[in-house]
Design goal:
about 600 residues, 10 strands, 21 helices, about 65% helix, alpha/beta, four-stranded antiparallel beta sheet
């Protein structure tokens, strides 16, 4: 049976794994895109700016002390003995406090922004068009939502803090240098345009490498995800050597990209320091010439050189800022792109509280990518309200595609699907899906309590649950005794995807969920496949009671479970080839009769099992 996994696999194969990186945007544009998510932290930014301004204003004090100390301090030691130490100690205490306030305020702002961005990303994830989950692996989406956003915010906070603090420090020191000796300061100013050109060129390379590194990280995580999910198959087929080579290739590619990124970032410092050294050399030459003409004193020269050397630290840190901002904003931009580029599911306005359950497919075709054959080929089918219809056929016949059309997990390529005479496109998606309960062979459970898994969607507060209704659903699914035997009863957690339950228990818990939902339309996709004979009989009786008065679509390979269906629809190659009751189709001797004969090992002409 194709199942939901076949649908996902086919859609993934239709969409290329490697996606083209987003178009290059300027750093200013990327920061602007982030603005709405960080607007709640404006106070933090203002506090950080004021603290940084205070810290920067104290920077020229130390070189300013050098001039009077050298010009007259050694001849009049008395004032310097107490003034200089007190000033220096007080200076560093105040600067330390200001630095703490600025760093804490920006970190608070960044974390507020990360929370807002993650909330928006997760909301879009839950509301995105199903194509998002077929075009991107779970590891890629997880990596962006959890790790890249956090890492990008940390880089951006560090970069913004350095940008504000070092820019103000640089402005304060340059202002003091201009006041002290404007001619010498001109040599410093000449170097800034050259530094800016060099930094911009290096940053372009850093951004290209960063995008490639993020893509390689996604691919590496995808390899790990596949091997974690398929560990049984890997071991059964002795595929570990091949998977190790595959992982190694991707791992080494990521290493090469990371080293390129390190090389590009490390190049920034020597380039800026070399240019700064040229400026300092020019300053020393001019200062020596001025000292010969009496244009400067020893104290003035020492004060200037001290301030000049103090410029090196902020210039160096500013040279690193651009690279950090590029990496951080690029990582955060991936989250923004996920929000902006992922289309929402189209919604209609039709939203009745309860559907009658009449389903009609008119000339419906579905294709997963242009290179694939049609999964459904101009299919026509009508299911009356309250009717139980069994879908049978060989693997790949289109049974799962058909049932996944109804809650709009798959969109039609041509034709139209109607529920109660209304096209699905005109239904509100939430209201549409409230009409369906699905039990699949691919059971999905959450690492939550038994009760919350049964009453999924009821609410996050256990007090909102109808616990008696939960117990009734578990009882009908033949699972209540087991649930009561757990240490915390209905409040016991069941592990990742029900890892603490057996296959049959997981299946029955999914059935209990469908019973609890009490939707007018049931989709049973091999709903009893993992049950033993005794449990299957009990659950089958519960399902039969639940199916009364409800429209039910049943997919089953075990034909003995569907012989009492109102109608059996046999499908092949995406088309309905025959339909009728179990007895009628056996008597007809067509596809259904052949499938029945293969399953039970004899020709079945009008026989029942």
């Amino acid at each position: 049976m194709a199942g939901a996994n076949a649908i996902i696999a086919a859609a993934r194969s239709a969409a290329p794994r490697r996606v083209r990186p987003p178009a290059m945007s300027t750093l200013k544009q990327r920061i602007a895109h982030l603005g709405p998510y960080f607007k709640s932290g404006r106070r933090g930014i203002a506090v950080a700016a004021l603290a940084s301004l205070f810290s920067a204003a104290t920077e020229p004090v130390l070189p300013a002390l050098m001039k009077p100390l050298l010009d007259r301090g050694f001849g009049n030691v008395q004032w310097a003995l107490w003034l200089v130490p007190v000033t220096i100690i007080g200076l560093f205490v105040l600067r330390g406090a200001a630095s703490f306030v600025a760093q804490y305020a920006l970190a608070w702002t960044a974390n507020q922004g990360v929370v807002s961005l993650r909330d928006a990303m997760f909301a879009r994830l839950l509301d995105a068009h199903p194509s998002l989950f077929t075009q991107h692996s779970a590891s890629r989406l997880t990596n962006i939502l959890v790790y890249e956003v956090q890492h990008g915010a940390q880089l951006l906070v560090s970069a913004l803090l350095s940008l504000v603090r070092e820019s103000l420090t640089l402005a304060a020191l340059l202002g003091y240098l201009i006041w002290l000796n404007w001619k010498l300061t001109l040599f410093v100013g000449v170097m800034f345009p050259l530094v800016a050109v060099a930094v911009r060129s290096i940053n372009r390379r850093i951004r290209r490498i960063t995008l490639a590194s993020q893509q390689a990280t996604d691919e590496l995580a995808y390899v790990i995800e596949e091997n974690v999910l398929a560990w049984r198959i890997v071991r059964l087929h002795d595929a570990a050597p091949h998977q190790t080579q595959r992982f190694g290739r991707q791992n080494h590619l990521l290493r090469r990209l990371m080293m390129k990124s390190v090389a590009a970032g490390a190049l920034m410092t020597p380039v800026t320091q070399t240019m700064t050294a040229c400026a300092i050399s020019g300053v020393i030459v001019v200062a020596l010439w001025q000292s010969r003409t009496g244009g400067t004193t020893v104290g003035g020269f020492a004060s200037f050189i001290t301030a000049m050397l103090m410029l090196l630290a902020p210039i160096k840190r500013l040279s690193d800022v651009s690279g950090q901002m590029t990496r951080g904003s690029t990582a955060l931009q991936r989250g923004i792109t996920l929000i902006d580029a992922s289309p929402r599911e189209p919604h209609g306005s039709h939203a009745p509280p309860l559907a009658r359950g009449e389903i009609e497919l008119r000339g419906v075709s579905v294709r997963y990518g242009q290179e694939h054959a049609l999964a459904l080929d101009r299919l026509d089918l009508r299911v009356h309200a309250g009717e139980t219809v069994a879908l049978v056929g060989p693997s790949g016949a289109g049974k799962s595609t058909l049932v996944h059309l109804l809650p709009r997990f798959v969109d039609v390529s041509a034709g139209e699907v109607l529920l109660d005479g209304v096209p699905l496109a005109e239904w509100d998606v939430g209201a549409l899906r409230r009409q369906f309960a699905l039990v699949s062979q691919d059971v999905v459970l959450f690492n939550d309590s038994v009760a919350m898994n049964v009453a999924l969607g009821t609410g996050n507060d256990g007090q909102l649950l109808d616990r008696e209704r939960v117990r009734d659903a578990l009882r009908s699914a033949n699972l209540l005794d087991f649930a009561d035997s757990l240490p915390q009863g209905l409040d016991s957690f069941i592990g990742h995807n029900g890892s603490q339950l057996s296959g049959g228990q997981r299946q029955r818990l999914a059935i209990a969920r469908a019973i609890y939902k009490n939707a007018p339309i049931l989709i049973l996709d091999e709903a009893t496949s993992a049950l033993d004979s005794e449990s299957e009989r009990a659950v089958q009786q519960a399902l039969e009671r639940l199916m009364q008065g409800r429209t039910t679509l049943v997919i089953a390979h075990r034909l003995s479970t569907i012989e009492h269906a109102d109608r059996v629809v046999a499908m092949d190659a995406g088309r309905v080839v025959e339909q009728g009751t179990h007895r009628e189709l056996l008597a007809r001797g067509g596809l259904y009769a052949r499938l029945h004969a293969m399953q039970f090992g004899h020709k079945s002409q009008g026989e029942t099992v």
